[in-house]
Amino acid sequence: MSRTNESFSVMALGLRGIPNVQGGIQSHCQQLYPRLISTNVSVDVIVRSPYMKGYPSNYWKGIRLRRFWAPRRKSLEAIVHSVIGVLVAAVVRPDILHVHGIGPGLIIPFARMMGLRVVITHHGPDYDRQKWGKIARWSLRLGERMGMKFSHGRIVISAVIQNLVLEKYGLTSELIPNGVELPELLETTRVQKKFDLEPGRYFLMVGRLVPEKRQLDVIEAFANCGARGWKLVLVGESNHPDQYTKWVMTLAQATPGVVCTGFQSGTDLAELYSHAGAFILASSHEGHSVALLEALSYGLPVVLSDIPANLEMGLTGDSYFPLGDVAALAQQLNRLGSAQVLQQVDRQNRRAWTVDRYNWRDIAERTLAVYESAARQNAVTKSGMRAKS
């Protein structure tokens, strides 16, 4: 991807931080922005200082990381930090302010008042997540409305979300999914030894410990699946530990063969993907799962809940089970656990199919096109206003 015209500046907010901060939006930004930096685009990311303690530098791969405080309360964290981010953007004056998620969408009218050009990425209807109460759900719905109505450019990561935006608001949006790069299949097994895992003999689940990921369903299904000699590996933690987190950890400790690794990234996570026997995604809510794309990029067979976002992937019918049907999930795990060693041809076919469809290079180019369109739109609007005056 190349860019030969004048420099273009982008400021991003709505994410906790990069690099190696847990969450789908964080993973998305960690892949997207270095690719924009490789063109004549400068990128600043507004990050939340509590999540950045493990990375002391203010720059990463050419991206400037602007650290600001945020309260560690899930009801206040995103909106407080987003207001701070808009005030910073109002001073810095980037060409585009890129807002990630519908929660921070609440501040887009404020950003417009400050004269900023705004693009929003709708990563999913977060008001459907089980963790939110009535007031939070109302705020998220309002954030979605403000984000869609007042942004100069709208990006969605799935056709399901694109249809939602069209039906609810009568507005078009640019469908740009999450992406993935072809990883190396690692032969090292340091993490497997650490957690006493046999390569090819464990089910892998990667995600935050939150109700919509349904780890409790997965643990129960694993306990009843009869896959002898297999283990279940749960990778992830909760940013705001609560009662659900305690339930997951208690049930995991009481169920033989369940291993909780906490949050993993980098080489350790790559090893876990490289040597897993299969991947599980049992969620009741997803936008477009980065963890699923990663699993497919490693060539793993997958078993997924049949929610619209997962069905949109277009995988074979035996990859799905009815959401919340623990018995059906147990049958799927038993089938996968009874299979022979993962076939190399099948693995390579999955890898090639995934990377061909979800290529980060293409995604970065299309995102830049949305930025440029939003910038032109604002310029035309200003020109028209001057002409009228």
At a glance:
With 389 residues, this protein is an alpha/beta fold. 44% of the residues lie in helices and 16% in strands. It is built from 14 helices and 14 strands.
Q: Going across the biggest sheet, name each strand in turn.
A: 3-4-2-1-5-6-7-8
H/E series, N to C? EHEEEHEHEHEHEHEHEHEHEHEHEHHH
Instruction: Tell me, rounded to a whole number, the average pLDDT.
Output: 90
- E-strand count: 14
Number of helical regions: 14
Helix content bin: 40-55%
What fraction of the residues are assigned to beta strands by DSSP? 15-25%
- Structural class per helix/strand content? alpha/beta
| Main sheet characteristics | 8 strands, mixed
- Stretches where pLDDT is under 50 for at least 5 consecutive residues are 380-389
* Shape, per Cα inertia axes: globular
Radius of gyration from the alpha-carbon trace, in angstroms: 21 Å
Determine the N-to-C terminus distance: 40 Å
Characterization of the model:
The chain is an alpha/beta fold and about 400 residues long. It has 14 helices and 14 strands. The chain has helices at about 25-35, 75-90, 110-115, 135-150, 160-170, 190-195, 215-225, 245-255, 265-275, 290-295, 310, 325-340, 345-355, 360-389; strands at about 10-15, 40-50, 60, 65-70, 95-100, 120, 155, 175, 200-205, 230-235, 260, 280, 300-305, 320. The chain has an 8-stranded mixed sheet with strand order 3-4-2-1-5-6-7-8, with helices on both faces. Strands 11-10-9-12-13-14 form a 6-stranded parallel sheet, with helices on both faces. Helix 1 (about 25-35) links the parallel strand 1 and strand 2. The longest helix has 29 residues, at about 360-389.
